[in-house]
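User: Some background: our group keeps a shared notebook of sequences we're curious about, and every so often someone picks one and asks for a predicted structure to add to the entry. Today it's my turn. The entry only has the sequence so far, pasted here. Could you supply the structure so I can complete it?
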Amino acid sequence: MGGNPAFSRDFHTIQEQGNLRVLYWSGFESYLPRAGFPLEQEKTSVSRFAAAHKLDVEFVAIENFDGLLAALADDKGDVIATNLTVTRTRAATVDFTHPVAYTTEFLVTKRGNDLAKVEQLNDYELAVPKGTSFVNTAKGLKKAYPGMKLRYLESNLSTDQVLDRLVAGEIQLTILDGNTLSAVQTYRDDVQRSFQASGRRAIAWAVQKGNKTLLEKLNQFLVQENLAVNSQPKTAPNNRWDKIKQDKVIRFVMRNNMASYFIWRGELHGFNYEMARHFAAKHDIRYQIIVAPDHEDMLNYLVEDKADIALGFLTPTKARRAMGIAFSRPYHYASELVVARASEQPIQDISELSGRKIYARPSSSYWATVTDLKRKVPGIELIPVAETLETEELIEGVAAKQYDLTIADSHILDLELTWRDDVQSLMSLGEPKEQSWAVNGKHKELLKVA
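Assistant: Of course. Here's the predicted structure to add to the notebook entry:
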């Protein structure tokens, strides 16, 4: 460590200089900010703290987890906010805020692993990154199961990199916090939770030892924003919207595509992402983005209560309502267009589609539209494609002669035509259709505000 024993910036100095420097471990960054991922939650919360005090926020990435406390001591940041577990060793060198979460550590294996009895740990090698709280947990397990081998990994490996090694068979077993593991399992299905490795542990933010003014302001904010967590359960809310307001967080599910949610030059973009962000700001709550693995799962996540609102230019259909999905008032209208290669001759009537193959996702409104169209033009062949495919990919498939025809909303095709000229719209299938937010039909209070 650089070794400055006194803190350099109390809250008064931070206000004078107008910026708050937030240290975080870059290894928590996934390929795209994900649902409920601890780093994203804490970045959102600390940004709200900065905004409340009219401060600019500067996020300072630390490559090695075991370098976080050193960076704080060396005055490279004012606060650590990165899913940091409170331990006695750390508390001797930093001051922790009120807990922002409680979590439990779990052993993690690749999916299909046959670790069934805890005694089998004597035959395993456990690998954990240096500098993490998992090291102490691993040492405790080693005492209980002396046959188990320990390996310490580089402290700059990201969570996904560790799990990639696990899946590849380079390591047999690792440890993750339960909250991180839950977030990871929303986008990868190749790992699984095994035995509990620790008791319930507090997660908190950290400031330099003795920086009382900053610590006091952070704690005040956590209490005011209902972010400070204690061990007592909250009174159960009456409905989903009340729970969202109580927890001060709402979960949006969407796909990673150009219309919804994507990252460009390090910045988050997307029409639906912006709507989610503005909705959360309007209601003074935090937001989580859940990236659904495919289009069908977007609505399944609502039914299974894995998300609160689905965003994705969703057209209300009978099939979707039959699932128990309810739709908000429309926020957009779009025509459904038949997409063909640019070399095709124009057509004048839907009967000319007889004998053609139209490719679409079965869960899409396009599928329902073409199903209805087939009653008038029986010669149309409707062919299903994978739910993971985006409409833009189907358009690309048409251009590449992989598919004959597909269907696209007018705004999606318009966007594609800004940079390509190898496809065209042959015709519009009816009047523009409503597109809405989707919620679980049981959550009537949430629907009213959506």
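Suggested note for the entry: Residues 325 and 441 are 5 Å apart (CA to CA). The chain is about 30% helix and 30% strand.
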